[in-house]
Every structure is written in structure tokens, then in C-alpha cells.
Design a protein that fits this description.
The structure is a homotetramer of 354-residue chains. In chain A, 30% of the residues lie in helices and 20% in strands. The first copy, chain A, has 354 residues and is α/β, with parallel strands linked by helices. A seven-stranded parallel beta sheet of chain A has the order 3-2-1-4-5-7-6, sandwiched between helices. Chain A has a seven-stranded mixed beta sheet with strand order 9-10-8-11-14-13-12. Chain A binds chain C through residues 1, 24-25, 27-28, 49, 51-53, 203, 275, 278, 290-291, 293-294, 296, 298, 340-341, 344-345, 347-354, and chain C through 1, 24-25, 27-28, 49, 51-53, 203, 275, 278, 290-291, 293-294, 296, 298, 340-341, 344-345, 347-354.
Chain lengths: 354, 354, 354, 354
Amino acid sequence: MHKYAIGVVGASGYSGIELCRVLAAHPGVEVRFVASDRWEGATVRARTGIAGAVGGLSYVPHARVLKAAQDCVAVFLATPAEASMELAPALLERGVKVVDLSGAFRLSDPAAYPEHYGFEHRAAGLLAGAVYGLPELVDRDAIASARLVANPGCYPTAAALALVPLLRAGLLTDESIVVDAASGVSGAGRQASETYSFCEVADDVRPYKVLRHQHTPEIAQSLSRGARKPVRLTFTPHLLPIKRGILSTASVRLAPGIGAGAPAEALRAAYRDEPLVEVLDGPEQVSIARTVGTPRAAVAVSTTDSGFDPGRVIVVSSIDNLLKGAASQAVQNLNLMLGLPERTALEPAPGVSP
Amino acid sequence: MHKYAIGVVGASGYSGIELCRVLAAHPGVEVRFVASDRWEGATVRARTGIAGAVGGLSYVPHARVLKAAQDCVAVFLATPAEASMELAPALLERGVKVVDLSGAFRLSDPAAYPEHYGFEHRAAGLLAGAVYGLPELVDRDAIASARLVANPGCYPTAAALALVPLLRAGLLTDESIVVDAASGVSGAGRQASETYSFCEVADDVRPYKVLRHQHTPEIAQSLSRGARKPVRLTFTPHLLPIKRGILSTASVRLAPGIGAGAPAEALRAAYRDEPLVEVLDGPEQVSIARTVGTPRAAVAVSTTDSGFDPGRVIVVSSIDNLLKGAASQAVQNLNLMLGLPERTALEPAPGVSP
Amino acid sequence: MHKYAIGVVGASGYSGIELCRVLAAHPGVEVRFVASDRWEGATVRARTGIAGAVGGLSYVPHARVLKAAQDCVAVFLATPAEASMELAPALLERGVKVVDLSGAFRLSDPAAYPEHYGFEHRAAGLLAGAVYGLPELVDRDAIASARLVANPGCYPTAAALALVPLLRAGLLTDESIVVDAASGVSGAGRQASETYSFCEVADDVRPYKVLRHQHTPEIAQSLSRGARKPVRLTFTPHLLPIKRGILSTASVRLAPGIGAGAPAEALRAAYRDEPLVEVLDGPEQVSIARTVGTPRAAVAVSTTDSGFDPGRVIVVSSIDNLLKGAASQAVQNLNLMLGLPERTALEPAPGVSP
Amino acid sequence: MHKYAIGVVGASGYSGIELCRVLAAHPGVEVRFVASDRWEGATVRARTGIAGAVGGLSYVPHARVLKAAQDCVAVFLATPAEASMELAPALLERGVKVVDLSGAFRLSDPAAYPEHYGFEHRAAGLLAGAVYGLPELVDRDAIASARLVANPGCYPTAAALALVPLLRAGLLTDESIVVDAASGVSGAGRQASETYSFCEVADDVRPYKVLRHQHTPEIAQSLSRGARKPVRLTFTPHLLPIKRGILSTASVRLAPGIGAGAPAEALRAAYRDEPLVEVLDGPEQVSIARTVGTPRAAVAVSTTDSGFDPGRVIVVSSIDNLLKGAASQAVQNLNLMLGLPERTALEPAPGVSP
């Protein structure tokens, strides 16, 4: 099989390491370089235990990315948003496709960046052409032909997979949508910070960035696209004392005249042919453990037309924030961009030979 | 100081152990007996490490409670609801006051028991006279004169402390109230069950009893009393991979014409003279670690009148489910019933001598 | 590629699930059946999330194993030792090869079973022919031609990989060997037991079965074979508040005249061509996280010829107790028995095509 | 009761916070100042939730300690060793007694400091007069009359409590002593470091500073004093994924002619009148959970005269590294120095009145 040359920038972050791990077993790509300033000079194997050819690579500094990328078809940017905003245009100019795991190209409105990301967008011209890479919910042809894919955020992936099918099917009222979600600590990235030290996080749970998390506009954008009109949204994230995984609990309301079984049916219909989204029978079956370490999401819904809040719909979803919320979704997108089977390297492929 | 004779039934459960721990340092009571079928014959010290006089007691079986209680002024029932329903009437008949930590006497409507607790209430005549023992929110004189106190549930304590002041002050619309909450595993009690085994709980978070948790009617009852009209309520509990602590995140909506600062003011006013409820500056300061191991609750609120959901109010609260959500609140109630200072044994008392 | 028909008994235990996970991606085998009384009738996918052909299988009861196995070349027994002792002879009689993950066939001396395992060995005739399947330390040809492989225990794998190379090289004195080791809770198997409930294990560490753990004779047997004479051994296991992983710290003493660098050299020499044993530069680099989720062991040694205990050698090793300590080592053994590349399904194979 | 004026330096570290917590409930002292550069200006209550008079104090910077201490009888130094080495002489000169929780004054030999602590001791003249404050093992009169108490390290406390009684009784051979121990992360102090970040510590266990931990000379000094001759010692510490607690497993050997029951008897005899050291029936009962949150140590021993290593003695001990391993032991020492009952503020005192 032909092997496409690719690179990984930000390869020492938690998402970057997972990218390397997935790509180490990917039969259709050759990782030409991995870049990290922090670990410059060390081998991937020494730092991460990853075996094989990827394990043998040494990290190059970010300053050498453009040179290293010159023979690559595509590059993953697992970098902070401002770094991605600088690197992506330079790579695209050189004909290198980009899958960006940061928020730099996810919001279509450049005016949203100063408020939510704290910087003026200096590559705003790319926003219109960037494709939001959530394969199960967007046009896969658009991803396949994209030069720049904005890989969705972790919370937005979990929330959109839970709610977009219900919104598209017109099952919900206009009541505002409440998404309470919780994430493992790796969602904050690799940090030398007291806030994320073991003693400050263990045995604790706390909300953070209440009413002002930067994923709020991204979730609102996804849900509004699904509803084909603006939605009202409250998103409250919480920090969990676990390394990985996101659980999202969304509270929405059934539109008048819609049967209580409709939300579950809508989820099943939306994901019938989507092996990477597992629809379970009830929210109690959806757990972080169900998806951590896998490229899949799990979703389920419960609806009541009686009790203390008739018409209430609870949609629960879970993903591994580093995989379906970052690295494995990025590889799904790359596979589509390269014309490879979408789940290459993501699921055991029956019939594969050693 | 005079010492009141008391007893603890269900003393080997997690709440029962915490009761013993608090009472071991209580200068105004003498624990006459501790009852547990599971640990019959063993000493409290051997099983729990609790020192002092309480540590020297041996557990008696539940069958001997009525005899053991005959000289007691009051008894704590840290037993399952059905056991409490049987024991409380027998103790009350003998003139022994009861603080019941189960749900057996919390709901004023006997008809709610079959649906939410799975049994017909066989002591329904006691429900009208049972006082709901949440001292910061109910009439303390009623607790002081009660013969039977229904000690609130853990989730209901966290939710009511967060929301009742806002409802009483008339700050909220009639929009339904969404309470997403999460609890440490001790909330499920001592269990020899695969579901609560370490390997099934660690590194995981999952919702449970979605739209059907037995604390829902209790929360609704508290909030409706606060609002002086029925509220609509959705309550979604989650299981956390920690031993103790509850975090509750409530999403409600500001009534028209009410300023964004009003909810925080209402909380501060309600708890100004309540040392066991700490009002913090923002929800991000409220964490499980802030209250675990203490008899206190922490609450804070954030309100927005712009953004993706104007009028949204997020109230976050935390308690130790075994203390303010069970044992220390029970001792608060006992202290009131015995005419002792409410926080005896619950806070370091300045001026105490060895 | 030809696919060998195999089966898995005890498929709902933690090792059994890992076996199914590894085998689901194994290109050379077809899993014909998975047996579990506990989960009879359910699908593997529903219970474990494992995708693909293995995920589609339904668990059959243990009573149907012999029938189900009749077309199989080999069967894994991930069953308690007494169950394995009954099943293995019956399978072998039918011409089915067996990889047994229990202790039933690990000790060559039948007289050791009553003391250490609590039962008389009723298939003692098989012990002489059973091959101890630790590929990096035993004769691989013997495994390849075995009909019955006794898959090593988790602690014994960790201890033997650390110490056998040093013993074989004659670097150590006869001083007794101290192995202190600690294991994640999955080592105790799936349990509905208060002892292994979350609240009893979390935030705690404790020793167990001190001076009487059933792995002691197995470790002593491995080390004595390595030393070609009986060794004295003290083994103290501890329970850790994590799900998986073993860390073993062995304290031994350098023989007179041997240089302080010799132990590290011996480890590097022993594992130079063993991709599944990683020799690291110092014990501080060996951690449980280094190997959990991988089929590899990590080992390192530190030696001092001065300080408070000259001649002291500390050898630290780690493995995933469910993989190199159980399931992945079992697949290594199966691969050898079937004539397949030893690491099939265990490491990303460069050049594999989707 | 008279209240002695005291101060706490390094009050924002984990041990410093526990000191404040214990002292907040201490009836015999008045905390005049708490010093911390990190939290200068904030109140104790805001940062830690500690209530009462101590909660109302604001942290002063370390530069103001000498001034703040001028009316104090005694000061706790919960500071790094080099800071303690500077502060202690200045305080002593002003007539203020010092309980130092660092290692600065624990080793009697000044020559040990450069190698084990990395600095030349610039107050070596104080070493001879500093009293090692392990009340259960040293002369309490010496502590009572000391001006400078060196509060023992956490690992050394756990190891000495386990082994000194056996050494004093002459029960052990001269074989070298192996102490494998493991500590919760708070033992490393408050850190903004990637090494101690949640994601690097959770789900992991690893050894550190193998054969070169700075507590090794301190343990050797304690054990050698107990044995009245130099001992050989290997100490291997491990980092645990929990916040607090130490478990120490010591392997030693019974001297010829000593009965297997002698070690247990020696422990019981040594601690018969020591309420803060609990001797349990077997090592399996000693766990970190048994002592965390308490001022007590737990110890137990198992001895075998048969099996794979006849004569082997395993002594297991546990303490809360922040309490018996730091803050509560420091208060024990202060109580002795002030002539107060030794356990004041450390155990529930029967008969205390509100």
C-alpha cells in the first residue's frame, strides 16, 4: 500500500502523543517528522514507549516544521490556537494539507475570537474555507476535498453528537439547552501548574469557566446549524479527578405532539451506519469507561412525559477527549482527505494480515 | 456538663461510622449503644479506629435496639428506609426521640412512597409530625420541639441550600429547574456489589436512575416550599470515582426585571449568620474538596444577562454527603432537640479546655 | 491468511475480556466461542464494547465448552485454578491445545497445591508435560510444541523478568531475595465483595497474604531454575488503588568481585532481542504507567557499592497484570504454538494493510 | 486556661495547613501569626476553609517572621531545610523555641548535609542540642526541655516506629534491613511541576531516588540508635497515586534462638501505653486508610520460621505523612515543650465541655 508522508506538530502534548500512537499502527501513512520544542532531540520511544518506526523518530523543534513538512502531504497541528493560526497558512501556502486540532479555525465568525480566545484572528481569510471535521454530522465530501480541516473540540463533539440528530429531526422546543459536562484532566493539556497538580485535583470535582468557556460558541454553532436557527445554550464544564474522558448530560425539551420514543429513534436512525457512534439503550449505560481508549462515542436518551417535569429529554454522551475528542477524530478526517477507508487504524479490521 | 444518653442504629454503614466519629468528640452526649448486625460483637475501635469511650463499645444486633434504647433520650437511625419505618414508631412509643437519616419520614405525602421508595408506608400517621431537619432553611423551633426529625437526603440538602434562598426571594421564573449533581460512592452505602467494586467505578463517571431517582420528590418538595408553589424539576445524579462529596450544579432563570447581582445578594443574605453555609465569590471556588471532612456546605452563583443564554443563573453547591448530607446535619438536629449549642462537636469551639 | 479456530473460557473475567480484545484484532485466529456463565446469552459487544466479529459473539455457558470446542485448535482457559484443572484434561483428550491462565499447571510439584492453592491436584499427571509459558525466559521450542501451556502469574512474570538474567549470570549472592510488589485491583478478578468495593480500596494501600501468597512458590520455582539451585525468597504483595498494573521492587545482593555495572549489562544482554521487554536506564523510569495497556514489561536496575548497604542491587519491573501478566502473554504463547509470528496482534506491525 | 502565643512559618504548604487545622482546635495556644510568601495578605479561611480565630488570620510574608515572633513562646517552621537553617538560629537567639519540620536539624553529623541535602550546614553548632522529636521512642524529658526540636521525617517516623522496638529488644540479626515504602503525593509538598501533575501521577506507581533518598541517613541514625550499633539499611521509596499516607514494609531477620512470637510481643510491650501507636494483629490490617486523618501510627508484624525464607520478619507500618509524619507529631512535641498534656488537640478528650 502507498504510504502518504505526514507530520505531527505539538507531538508532546497529550493529544499529540495519542496521534503518534494511532499513527504508529496506521498502514497508509509514513510519519516523516514529529515536532516538539519541549522534547527536542529525544526519541518518541524514550518519552512515550511507542514502538515501531514512529517510536524511532526524534522530536524536531517547531522552528523546523516548515522545512520538515516540505515533502508531506498533510500535517496535524496539535498546537495552541495562536500557534495553529500562524502555522496553518504557511503550510497551506506550501501545498500541505492541515488538520488543526486547536480552536483556531472552528468558528466561522472571526469576530468571536477576541472574546472567546483572547486574540484577533490574523488568518481570518481561511475561516470560510475551513471544514469542521465531525464526520458523522457534516458532509464527508467536504472533508475529503478540504485543504484545512478544523478538528472539533472535545466538549463540542460530545454535545453535538448527542443533540444534532434531535434538532435536525425537529423534536425539540426552543427552550434553552442546558449542557452540563465533565472532563478528565488531560483536557487541560500538559501543565506544570499547581492548579492541575495531583493534590489539587484528586478526590475533588469543581466547575470552571462557568458561563464563559471558549467551547460555548462552538457548541452553539454546531447546534444552531443542526436546528437551522439560533439556539440558546448554557454550557457548564467541570473538572474530574480522572485522566481522560468526557461525559456530557444535556437537558432539552420535547416539542408538543412529539412522542416520547422519538428522540431514541432519531439517535438510532442518525447513527445506524456509523460504527464510531454507539447508541445505547439508556443513559445509565453511557459512561466514560465505555469509550475511553476507543475512537467511539456513546450516546443514549431518556424522555419523560410525566413526573416532575413532563416533556423533559436527557441526552447523555461520552467520548475519550483525547481520541474521538481529538486524535482519532483527526485521523478519521485525514483518512477522508487521503481517500482511505475512514476507520483505517481506528478499529480492528477483519481480514488484516500480519 | 450533663451528658444525654443516646444510641446509634445502623452504626456500621458509612453514615453510621461518621456519626460515631462526631459523637466520640461530643461533650454533651454519652453514646450508650451502637447497633449493627454486620459487626455484632466487634468493638468500634477495632473496626473503625475511633478512640475514646465510643471506641470501646461493642456493636449490638438490631434485635436488641429497643432494649438498649430504654434509657436513651434520643436515637439516631442510620438504617434503610424500611427499617427506619419499623423502628421509629417503636422508639417514639417508648418516649425516645428519633433522628432518622433515611428517607422514611421526609416526604409529607404517604402516596409518594410506593412509587419512589417501593413500599407502602406503614407508619404514615407519623409523616405529618415529622420535622424536616435542614436547620438553615426551616424553623429551628420546630426542630427543637420535634420528637421525630427526618434528616434530609444528601442531594436534597445540596440542592435546597443552593436554590431555596433564590426562590424565597422571588428571583426566578417558573422555567423548570435543572439540577445536575454528582456524588462520591459512599452515597450508595456499604455494598458487596460488583456495580460498586473498585474496577467498575474507578476512572469512570456515569449517570444513574435518570428521571427516576428517589430524591427527586424530596428536592421538589423543598423547592416548592421555598417558592410557595409547585416547581418543575429535573434532577440527574451521577456517580463519581471518589469516596465522598457531592457537587450540585443548578441551572435556573432570572425573573424579568431582576438584576444580575440579586442571586448572589440573596445567598449572602440568607447565610450571613449561618456559619455552616459558606457563600463563595464564584462557582469556580465551590468544589467537593472545599467541604469534604467538614460539617459545612459551600454555595456560589453566577448570572449572565448576555451571551448565549441571557438570564441564566448557575448555582453550584457542595457538601460532604456523609456529614452535612447525613451525620453532621443529624448532630445539628440533635443539638437543637437537646437544647445544646447547634454546632457542638461540629466546629472547633474557641475556649474549650482539655 | 489461514485462520485458526479458537475459544475463550472465562471470557467475562478481566483477563478474559482482555483476551477477547486482543483476539478481536488478531489476523490469524477466528474466535469460535466465548464462554461465561455470568454473561450467558449477552453479546460481547453489549458487555464490553468490543467491535468486529468477536463483538458479535454471544457468551455460552461453561457447560457447553466441550461441545463448542470440538472444532477448535486451541482454547484459552481464563478460569479459576480448580475449574482449569477439570477442563484442561477433557480438552486435551479431544485434541484441543490449551493455554491455561490459572495457576493449575504452573507448579511442577503436585504436593505444593494443597498448601498454596487449597486443593489436591486431580490432574497431576499433566504437570510434567505442561510448559511454563514465559517466552523471554524459557525455551521457545518447548512452548511451540506444547499441548498444554501454563501461562505465568502476574507477580511471577514481573519478578522473573527482573531477576532471572542476574541469577543466570551468577551475579548475586545466596542472600535471600526480597520482592515487594504491588498490584492494581483487577488482579483480584471480578468481585462482588466489600473488600474490593470502591470505598474500601480508594485512597488506600495495604499488604495482603503476607508470607503466604500463592504466587510465592511460583516465583521461587522460576528464580531457582534461573539460579540452578534453590533460592530463598520473601514476597510481599500490596493492593493499590488503581485498576491495572504491577510494580515489583526486588532487593538482592551483588556477589563479591562483581562490578556494580554488571546487573544492568546482564539485563541489556538478556533482552537485547526481546521487543516485549524494555530495559530502561534507571528504576525511576520504570512505572506502572509505562506498561499499562501494552504487552510489554519494563525493567531497570540500580546498584551501589557504597552508602548504607554496599553491594545492594535494586531491580524494579512493571507490567500490565492483565496483558503481559495474563492475556497478551497468553497470545504470545498461542502464536508460538500455532507457528505464527510471536507478536502477532500484540504490536503495530509495520506494513499491515487495511 | 493560659494560652501560649505561637506562630507558624511555611503555613501554606501541606504540612503547614495541617498545623493550622490542628492548632485551630487547640485550647492551649493562641496562634499569633501565620507566615507564607505565596499567600501573603489572604486569610487562612479563604484559602483553606479553616474556621475560628486561626481562619481569621492573614498570612504575613516570611520577611516579617522575626518581628511577628517576638512575643511568641514557640514557632513551627514548616519550611524547606535551608530556610529552616537560617530562621531557627535567629528565633532561638530571641528566646523563641522552635519545632522544625524540615530535615535541617535531624542529622547529628553535619558532614551528612552536603551529600544528602545538597548544602553545607551553616548552623552546625545547633545540631548537638537539637532533640529528635519522636516522643514514643525518645526521652520525653529531653523534648520537654529542648529549645530546638527536630521533628522527624515522614518515612523515618514510619520506619522507626516499626523497627526500633525489635532492635532494642535484640530480636534481629545483623542482616541488612530492607525498607520499601510508599507515600502519597503531598509528601512532595505543594508543587507547580509537571512531574506531580495529576496526569503524570494518577493510575501510576513508581520508585524514586532509589538508593539516594535524603531520608536514608535519618532512618539509619534512628535504627542504629535503637540497635546501639550501626545497621545496614536499604530504603526504597515509591510515589503513590493518593494524596496522603505512607505505608512502610520492612523485611528483617529473626536472630537465632528467638521465638517467632517475640517481634509481636516486643511491639505490644513498646506501645502498650502509647495511645498514638496502634499495634494490630497482622500486617494485613495495617493500611494507609487506617491512619490517614489521624495523629496515630499503625504497626503489625508477621514472622515465619518455615516456608521459603525461614526467620523472615515483615513489619508493616502506616501513618498520615502530614500528621504523625509532620503536623500532629509537631504538636505532640510542642505540647511536651509547653508542659501540656501530650495529646492536647490530637484526640477527642472525654469530658471536654463546650
